[in-house]
Design goal:
Blueprint: H1 2-16, H2 21-32, H3 35-66, H4 68-91, H5 108-120, H6 123-137, H7 145-169, H8 176-205
């Protein structure tokens, strides 16, 4: 049980930590607004991020359990896509956008909409999440999957709250070098999971 919880936690961090629109919104809010506003944005982002993770995990995972051909296809496509994503993170140079790019002076309703948009209206995030989480579900023992997805959700909760806290405390020191290190570490971890999916694909068809 603990092993699968930690696997989910590690993958959850690797999936959510790389700098994207969700993180940019939380970072910029924490840099330019109060801690209260930063935590407000972080909690709303957590809600939408976890809801997306659960949808990706449950939807594709259930279908793959019923249809072996789909399971083989997703494992193959997922391994290729996940390795590609990890490679991209290792090669990519991250950038911090300012409030000129992302408007942080918003009403509560507008903040909710923005958090929803950067999560659920990001087609690439839905595809990547389905391939990664759905693919991982196919490799898990039947009764251990719940611990894995709890770990994934816990990672989202810990990450966004930590991101808001750390950015608020060290506004002047959150530079491009730190973001580069984050992307490198997460890129390597995601690539390792991609190779794990590839191994599961080979094992399934052999």
């Amino acid at each position: 049980m603990f092993r699968y919880l930690m696997d989910g936690l590690l993958l959850g961090f690797a999936y959510v930590v790389p700098i994207g629109m969700q993180n940019i919104f939380v970072i910029n809010t924490a840099i330019h607004k109060s801690k209260l506003k930063a935590y407000q944005v972080a909690l709303i982002t957590i809600f939408f991020d976890i809801s997306l993770a659960l949808s990706c995990y449950m939807g594709v995972g259930v279908l793959m359990e019923r249809f072996k051909v789909l399971k083989i296809f997703i494992l193959l496509l997922g391994s290729i896509a996940v390795i590609y994503i990890g490679t991209g993170l290792v090669m990519k140079s991250p950038k911090i956008q300012t409030e000129e790019t992302i408007d942080i002076n918003r009403s509560f309703i507008s903040i909710i909409w923005t958090c929803f948009a950067v999560t659920w209206l990001n087609l690439q995030a839905i595809i990547d999440g389905s391939l990664l989480l759905g693919g991982m579900r196919a490799t898990l023992p039947q009764y251990m999957g719940k611990y894995f997805i709890v770990g994934v959700c816990l990672a989202s909760f810990i990450w966004f709250l930590s991101l808001a806290t750390i950015t608020s405390l060290f506004k002047g020191k959150f530079d491009i070098k730190v973001l580069r290190i984050i992307n490198l570490v997460c890129g390597v971890i995601i690539m390792l999971y991609g190779f794990k999916l590839a191994y599961s694909f080979v094992k399934l068809i052999s």
